[in-house]
């Protein structure tokens, strides 16, 4: 028995063959436009922060790059997806690490480990990187105030004894405390100040032999040591502008008084 649908199928088949060629070749090409995954500029990051910081303080910045062209190479966001961060840190779309708005005190000598991830805007392709944040218990202001005290004390002592070595010794002690402080902040600053201390000893020997005025020594120390250390503290440790100026002036004052009171 002939089914009614047979005539309908034959009709559509005849109509299709009359409008299309007998052999139809369809080629489908798919180009992969997102070939590369984002990669962090470093496999491991290390930042150092103080024990008492204001909420929302800047800790450091990470960055990743994508070799894809155009919008495919744009990093959409960064994310902290693991570690023992205890929800004390935040990261924004630019890779800037800050303390949480509710956090302003950290345990002393604590190291936090964060697992980071960079995410592509159209496809979640991410590569992991590890970040360590070390909390230093060193008091910045204690070492600075102590250096000022020793500078003034030794300067007054040099007046009573009339011996020219004490002003320079007080300057050296001020630099030594800054050097001790920098060891806990950054190896680069520590190396920089180590070179300055060696330079100070060398210049001091020249002054003793040739009786050169001490004003050049004060200018050299104030520019090379005070400004560099103060700028480093203000930028990388999130110290306010007022604290930055007080640190700069206090170190400069200790050097100036050491020479003036002599």
UniProtKB/TrEMBL annotation:
The chain crosses the membrane at residues 130-154, 161-183, 189-207, 214-237, 243-261. The keyword Transmembrane applies. The keyword Transmembrane applies. One of its GO terms (molecular function) is calcium ion binding. Keywords: Membrane, Transmembrane, Transmembrane helix. GO terms for cellular component: membrane. This is DCHS1_2.
């Amino acid at each position: 028995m002939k089914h009614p649908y047979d005539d309908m199928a034959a009709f559509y088949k005849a109509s299709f063959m009359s409008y299309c060629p007998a052999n139809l070749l369809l080629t489908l090409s798919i180009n992969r436009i997102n070939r590369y995954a984002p990669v962090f500029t470093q496999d491991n990051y290390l930042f150092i922060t103080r024990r008492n910081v204001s909420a929302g303080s800047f800790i450091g910045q990470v960055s990743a790059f994508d070799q894809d062209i155009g919008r495919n190479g744009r990093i959409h966001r960064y994310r902290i997806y693991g570690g023992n961060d205890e929800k004390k840190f935040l990261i924004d779309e630019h890779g800037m690490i800050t303390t949480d708005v509710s956090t302003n005190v950290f345990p002393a000598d604590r190291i936090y480990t964060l697992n980071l991830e960079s995410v592509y805007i159209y496809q979640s392709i991410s590569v992991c990187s590890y970040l360590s944040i070390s909390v230093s218990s060193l008091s910045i202001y204690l070492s600075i105030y102590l250096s000022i005290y020793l500078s003034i004390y030794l300067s007054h002592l040099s007046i009573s004894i009339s011996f020219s070595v004490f002003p320079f010794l007080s300057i050296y002690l001020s630099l030594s405390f800054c050097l001790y402080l920098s060891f806990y902040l950054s190896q680069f600053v520590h190396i920089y100040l180590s070179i300055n201390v060696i330079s100070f000893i060398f210049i001091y020997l020249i002054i003793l032999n040739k009786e050169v005025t001490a004003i050049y020594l004060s200018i050299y120390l104030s520019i090379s040591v005070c400004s560099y250390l103060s700028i480093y503290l203000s930028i990388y440790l999130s110290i306010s502008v007022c604290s930055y100026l007080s640190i700069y002036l206090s170190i400069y004052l200790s050097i100036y008084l050491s020479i003036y009171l002599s």
